[in-house]
Amino acid sequence: MSLTEAILSGDSRAMARAMTLIENETSSAREILKALFHRTGRALVVGITGSPGSGKSTLVDSLTQEYRSQGKKVGIIAVDPTSPFSGGAIMADRVRMSRHYNDEGVFIRSMATRGHLGGLARTTEKMIAVLDGGGYEIILVETVGVGQDEVEIVRVADVCLVVLVPGMGDDMQAFKAGIMEIGDIFVINKADQPLVEKVQRELETALSMAARRDGWTPAIVRTIATQGQGFRGLVQQVDLFNQFRRGSLDWGARRRQIAEDNLRELLKERLLEKAIQQNGVWDKLQAASVAVTERKIDPYSAIDAIIEGL
Amino acid sequence: MSLTEAILSGDSRAMARAMTLIENETSSAREILKALFHRTGRALVVGITGSPGSGKSTLVDSLTQEYRSQGKKVGIIAVDPTSPFSGGAIMADRVRMSRHYNDEGVFIRSMATRGHLGGLARTTEKMIAVLDGGGYEIILVETVGVGQDEVEIVRVADVCLVVLVPGMGDDMQAFKAGIMEIGDIFVINKADQPLVEKVQRELETALSMAARRDGWTPAIVRTIATQGQGFRGLVQQVDLFNQFRRGSLDWGARRRQIAEDNLRELLKERLLEKAIQQNGVWDKLQAASVAVTERKIDPYSAIDAIIEGL
Prior knowledge:
The structure is a homodimer.
Chain A (H helix, E strand, L loop, with lengths): L2 H6 L3 H12 L3 H10 L7 E7 L5 H14 L4 E7 L8 H9 L8 E7 L7 H14 L4 E6 L4 H9 L2 E6 L6 H9 L5 E4 L7 H14 L9 E4 L8 H17 L1 H29 L3 H13 L5 H11 L1
Parallel strand pairs in A: 1-4, 1-5, 2-3, 2-4, 5-6, 6-7
């Protein structure tokens, strides 16, 4: 049985191996993705983001539990905003801590952002394709932070959950600036804590000030992840938005734009590969790197010279 | 006088115009950067990052004040982690709020991350080149958030400051995971607040656990940005690290790697441009985008077909 066939049969070890091939950017990864393509596009991808400390990991655990009780297979991709100097060790702990670690209907993968500079969304999409091909119906993509990662998540997720907690105080302002507009559903977690009404009011005010172009009014759902409370309602809201989204005009245009962006990136990479395979181009690139570092030539002129030689 | 000459003479309107050309990715931007190259590489680039609410904007203001008192010209690039749907309006307020708004020795530019997906570091480098060419000796790059942006900052900054505040509580853990290792200097701001000793201890413990490959022991500096306290000491630490860094072995290798990455990106973009200028390639790319969206063909096969036709 080929690796692709094993993935399609739902073999989790085959999926893990394919994901490693993708992370290492091997050419066999491309073949696998090609073969999987016609069997993907069925999963529902839910992006989950929010400030550190908002209890996202526990929330993902409880959301997984809810989908599992509906008999659905759940894939989890945890994106680790690790620095370029360390590895992806923090999220590995995260994987071990999950209470679904031994559940065969749950596949958890942590992904360090290291080595994916500028390509995080694309690598995540490839991971999603593997889970999708393996028959995982719900795919949760969780990231830490309130930066570029979260903006990229919008591109890969069908539904985006933004998690808040009571008592955010001054952070609310920065929070609003960062990721307010990417949320299709806002989750107030730790809803048994004081100040829950305050954060709800602030959120409602912020949401009322900016009407979405697609006409959707983002729902606000309260949860207590540590007790598994509020997750039936959250899943209902996810379904509701998913139905709305599939009917909206924006959706088709957005999918087409994502496809075009991906094709452009693929084309660029292939063109670079082809160019570097030509005689002497690799050496020229290395020599140019040294010359630019020593400020003997500017990068634009260096590339002009390489292009002319092709 | 050409735009490039105006920039080299320190004309701030010319600099602003060049930056807009860069943001819009015009071909004239490339010509300007090419002409500026031999006059750049002199500025000290200081990256400043940390959680929302840590008072980074005020800190940047006070740091600017300190450098101004030394007679140095200061450029500030404020990176705005705005969502793909809004503009970059938040940081525009930030610019107006600066007390250096009317100081000709200070140039402030806000930059929305929108449209720079995966290219934030490169666009920032180009902005830095303009400030550098314009004779700004100190360039402060400030970002919000604890995600991918901050990791990218490491690549463009000579010195990276990470800002903390007392009373971070649970956030400390996530904080450590995210950006602990990118700090050359840690700044405990709002150092007049209670719990300052606690955050210092936690920081020291965290730092003692991970020795840096380059042998540098990150300094911890306390500031009260609202009162301008601690900034002479902070500037001294920045100078100290800068000297250390220039003498370290890693430094040369890192600069070479950055140059090579930039050259590869430039080469990719130029190759794509050249390919798309060929007859029919643009149309093929559009048709492929539709076909992939409709799942009639996988992206890899679509690109194979385009590549073969070149």
